[in-house]
Amino acid sequence: MPQHVPSRHKPKLGQNFLVSPTAPRAIVEALGDLTHATVLEIGAGKGVLTALLAARAQQVIAVELDDRLAAALPREWPGSPKRVEIICQDILTVDLTRLAAEWEGRLQVVGNLPYYISSPILMHLFAHSAVIERAVLMAQREVAERIAAAPGTRAYGLLSATTQMNATVETLFTLPSEAFAPRPEVYSTVFRLTMQSRFEELGLERAGFLRFLRQIFALKRKTLANNLRASGYDPAAVDRAFTQCDVDSQVRAEALSLESMACLFRALAPALLGESTT
Question: What count of other Cβ atoms lies within 10 Å of the Cβ of residue 27?
């Protein structure tokens, strides 16, 4: 069973609680049929989503960093025969793979991502994507737009590419600031991720390609070719890779599809290892 770990040192929490009368049900319904599901809730807060999940899911595991909120969350809910497992811990330190093994099934994930750590939480979920089936998450609207952005658009970048290598993305709906208390200064968007890794499909080694993505998006104002040269790739190898993959030498990373990025990565892999390309 998961351990109840009390929080000790935690950052200042920017907590905005969902008070919309309709949004909680819409968020939970976006997860689909939960009759036989184990749901991991990120940031249970005052239990608005937890109560709905407890009535629908086979098992609910609520992770809450704030020890005062975690202590106030009921373990048993009216209308639900099940206990809710409360973990008082930073979600970034929770071993989701181990958690899924303990509950014997892939996880459904739901949560309102704190604005200041949305990207780290997403990266943590992707690192454990093999044990997650889907996630319905809320983030600042601008972050959600980056997650769902298509190549060639202004919002497309490292977060877009990394997310779309790990999951299919669906934008569901956007909530105004008055849906929360206290009111944030931003709108929030709910989106659904269905975990579906593309690494094997595109013939990519996961860790190496993720490093490659960080390299090619490092300096967005530079052309991709200049970015690669600045990252230590042999200029001649870069030119050959662009020709082999039919990529314009003046293109920037945000204009490339994942397929083109994958082609360049495979073509440049020998150069990265210090070998000559042919």
Answer: 26
* Long-range contact pairs involving 29-36 (C-beta distance under 8 Å, separation at least 24): 30/136, 30/172, 30/190, 30/192, 31/108, 31/110, 31/134, 31/136, 32/108, 32/134, 34/58, 34/108, 36/105
Which residue segments constitute the domains of the chain, with CATH numbers given?
17-195 (3.40.50.150), 206-272 (1.10.8.100)
Tell me phi and psi for residue 22, to 5 degrees.
-110, -25
Q: Which residues pair with 135 in a beta bridge?
A: 109, 193
Give the residues across from 177 on adjacent strands.
none
Closest CA relative to residue 250, chosen from 273, 225, 276: 225
Higher confidence at residue 221 or residue 178?
178
Rounded mean pLDDT of 187-198? 97
What pLDDT score does 119 carry?
Answer: 95
Pairing between β-strand 180-181 and β-strand 17-18 as defined by DSSP bridges: antiparallel
Q: Tell me the percentage of the chain whose pLDDT exceeds 90.
A: 74
Task: Spell 35-62 as b/e; 16+ CB within 10 A means b.
Answer: eebbbbbbbbbebbbbbbbbbbbebbbb
The pTM of the full predicted model, rounded to 2 decimals, is 0.89
Token duo for residue 202:
């595109």
Cite the beta strand spans of 95-237 per DSSP E: 107-112, 132-140, 167-175, 180-181, 188-195
Q: Backbone dihedral region of 131: left (phi > 0), alpha (psi from -120 to 50 degrees) or beta?
A: alpha
For residue 271, the model assigns a pLDDT of: 66
